[in-house]
Q: What sequence folds into this?
């Protein structure tokens, strides 16, 4: 909202959600898929998961994030389509361009979702949403659902409600409008889990208090919720009454970068696992370098063959954007939790605590083992020779591909 506008003029916030986006793009690639149960994702015999599934598949009980092997058992005639992310990104860019043609106040929250502030436009919010929906369907042939309200919270829930109300084998293409002043009444009958931030644990605690709907939650005094949940209790109370003053954020500075891979078969060989960590570390380093930032916290994610997942992290004495440094730290964290011969299903490497000031010193994590620093290779000493070598490797990778050349283990 423009600061010069009177505070009592309600905003018009619209949330757009592309319906089964990956599937919609795949139907454009192959029109014979339309109306059929199919899923986008990896192969069942390679531990693939469902990234997206058609509405015909959803009618049979298939859901996103489900193991593809399970989806294939539920529906033996399910067609499995490999993802084409480059085309998804291109289609998403076209959708966002249609929104940005209306207003620069656009907050993209994922490849298939965005908020935008239509407060300054002359038409009513419902008319703007309906015209945009028609434009995206007619010009891009992509179905989408929209929610219109006075704030982001209610607009998002409105689009979710619209999609849930239309349970058919066709995309919902819903449009749900919550008029100003009716936010609390709209939310009241909905399950409390539909509120942002209310996950299974919070929902279970609320259920113990007899709270099952958003209206139940709104009826509690804010002081009671604050006593039970702390500062989060205040947010719960306000959200339950449909109050959300967050602005549209047109740019999110990155807070972390991470890369991970799930193996088609469990890996139990140390050298191969360490090499995988190095590859992931180099990918993270390239992203840091592209953004011209350095990271001080290195994180390792590991999943065993029984699906147990753990994370470990450490903080460097000084920030880095070098793959050699990231790999050394991630490999050290790995050795601290891995026992010889234990199979690994997934590995991930992340970098956070970002800064664009290379001279900013951050306190070292006391969990770093002193013996590590007794090694011949000191991972925090980035010599001029090492930096020149990394620059040469990056230049060759940019010209010939990320896997054309990489530095060897020391």
A:
């Amino acid at each position: 909202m423009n600061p010069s506008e009177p505070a009592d003029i309600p905003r018009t916030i619209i949330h757009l959600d592309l319906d089964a986006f990956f599937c919609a793009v795949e139907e454009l690639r192959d029109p014979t898929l339309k109306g059929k149960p199919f899923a986008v994702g990896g192969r069942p015999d390679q531990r693939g998961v469902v990234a997206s599934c058609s509405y015909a598949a959803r009618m049979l009980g298939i859901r996103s994030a489900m193991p593809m092997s399970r989806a294939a058992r539920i529906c033996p005639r399910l067609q499995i389509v490999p993802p084409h992310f480059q085309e998804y990104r291109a289609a998403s860019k076209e959708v966002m361009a249609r929104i940005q043609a209306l207003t620069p106040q656009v907050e993209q929250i994922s490849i298939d979702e965005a908020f935008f502030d239509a407060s300054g436009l002359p038409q009513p919010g419902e008319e703007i949403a309906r015209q945009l929906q028609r434009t995206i369907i007619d010009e891009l042939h992509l179905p989408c659902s929209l929610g219109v309200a006075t704030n982001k919270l209610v607009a998002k829930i409105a689009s979710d409600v619209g999609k849930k109300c239309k349970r058919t084998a066709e995309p919902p293409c819903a449009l749900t409008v919550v008029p100003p002043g009716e936010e609390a009444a709209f939310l009241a009958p909905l399950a409390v889990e539909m509120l942002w931030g209310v996950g299974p644990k919070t929902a279970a605690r609320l259920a113990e208090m007899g709270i099952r709907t958003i209206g139940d939650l709104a009826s509690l005094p804010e002081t009671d919720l604050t006593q039970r949940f702390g500062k989060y209790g205040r947010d719960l109370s306000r959200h339950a009454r449909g109050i959300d003053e967050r602005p549209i954020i047109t740019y999110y500075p990155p807070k972390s970068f991470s890369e991970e891979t799930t193996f088609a078969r469990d890996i139990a060989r140390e050298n191969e696992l360490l090499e995988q960590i190095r590859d992931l570390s180099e990918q993270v380093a390239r992203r840091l370098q592209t953004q011209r930032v350095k990271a001080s916290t290195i994180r390792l994610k590991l999943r065993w063959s029984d699906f147990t997942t753990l994370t470990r992290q450490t903080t460097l004495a000084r920030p880095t954007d070098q793959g050699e440094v990231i790999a050394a730290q991630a490999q050290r964290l790995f050795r601290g939790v891995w026992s010889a011969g234990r199979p690994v299903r997934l590995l991930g490497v992340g970098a956070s605590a970002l800064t664009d000031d290379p001279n900013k010193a951050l306190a070292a994590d006391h969990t770093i083992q002193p013996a590590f620093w007794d090694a011949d290779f000191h991972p925090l000493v980035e010599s001029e020779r090492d930096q020149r070598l990394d620059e040469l490797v990056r230049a060759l990778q940019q010209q010939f591909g990320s896997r054309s050349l990489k530095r060897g283990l020391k």
